[in-house]
Design brief:
Number of helices: 7
Number of domains: 2
Helix content: 25-40%
Largest sheet: 3 strands, antiparallel
Strand order of the largest sheet: 5-6-7
Structural class: alpha+beta
């Protein structure tokens, strides 16, 4: 999910906007990360529940490391907050040197959470000064990438917290008042003629490099549903023996079903004749009208996750 791709040329973040608007955008993204971390205890933030997850504390530090490494450190006179952080909070940027092994981020009980929060304040102070002084085109592009990168980590933080909390026998809710998924409704299939179409991002605005160049592809005629697949649809698939019928799966998927004994989406739990689902709201009955999620948690080998 965390692309870390280079941004491609488009309208810079601060073009056609005042420096105050650019500062506001930076502050909003950074504050949103702290709001997402606010319901977590210090103990919650240090645990790594699986090698493909990262502790919340690491997310808070890594997103600050990005701005410090790529925007602040090249500036004359800037002193890093802590020279050890370059090793601790790099992810996979080979050009930036060695780094803490990904699967061992959860052993980083030090630096303490208070130090990480101080690190964020330090980076924010210097970044605001940098933005206020005016950015050249290259720096604007890096800033846009850094903010998109942090927004990706906001999603990752919640995904990693969900997995962590799902392993607790207490089934804790991250936020019991979090809005539930909107009902998907009955699906209607829309016929599409296909033909020669353009896909990919335009040259207006930010995009990761894997979203460009915009190009033409040929599509055969097809149909597509106007709604997401619902939990009720997936329950019907399960009742029809979907997890026991190899003809419904590609070979890699069927091998994973067998190897991991899949019988329901991840985070579903049997409750007598019914099912409950664990979410960031806690444990609750499966809503048949809500979109189905977590039907496959495999991360493809050709995708990078920070």
């Amino acid at each position: 999910m965390d692309g870390h791709s280079h941004p491609t040329t488009g309208r810079p973040l601060c073009s056609d906007a005042s420096q105050s608007a650019c500062l506001r955008r930076y502050s909003e993204v950074r504050a949103a990360t702290l709001r997402l971390a606010a319901p977590l205890s210090a103990e919650d933030m240090v645990v790594q529940s699986m090698p493909d997850a990262s502790p919340a504390k690491w997310h808070l530090a890594h997103t600050s490391w990005f701005f410090e490494t790529f925007l602040l450190s090249p500036r004359p006179g800037y002193a890093p907050f802590d020279p050890h952080y370059g090793y601790l909070f790099n992810s996979y940027y080979e050009a930036k040197g060695a780094r803490q092994p990904r699967a061992q981020r959860g052993v980083l009980t030090r630096p303490a959470l208070s130090d990480i929060l101080a690190y964020r304040q330090h980076v924010d102070h210097h970044m605001r000064d940098l933005i206020a002084a005016g950015l050249d085109a290259e720096s604007e592009t890096l800033l846009a990438l850094g903010l998109a990168h942090e927004e990706q980590h906001q999603e990752l933080l919640l995904m990693d917290v969900l997995h962590l909390f799902s392993l607790s026998p207490l089934a804790p809710a991250y936020d019991p008042n979090l809005a539930a998924d909107a009902p998907a409704g009955e699906a209607r299939f829309i016929p599409c003629a296909g033909g020669l179409v353009e896909i990919g991002a335009t040259n207006d605005g930010f995009a990761f490099d894997n979203e460009r160049p915009r190009h033409k592809v040929w599509l055969e005629p097809y149909q597509i549903a106007d709604r997401l697949v619902r939990n009720g649809d997936w329950l019907a698939f399960m009742h029809d023996g979907g997890y026991a019928r190899p003809e419904l799966w590609l070979s890699d998927g069927w091998a994973r079903v067998q190897a991991e004994s899949w019988r329901a989406p991840l985070y579903w739990r049997p409750d007598g004749e019914q099912w409950q689902a664990f979410s960031l709201r806690g444990l609750h009955p499966v809503d048949p009208d809500a979109p189905v999620t977590h039907i496959s948690e495999v991360v493809p080998e050709n995708r990078t996750r920070c």
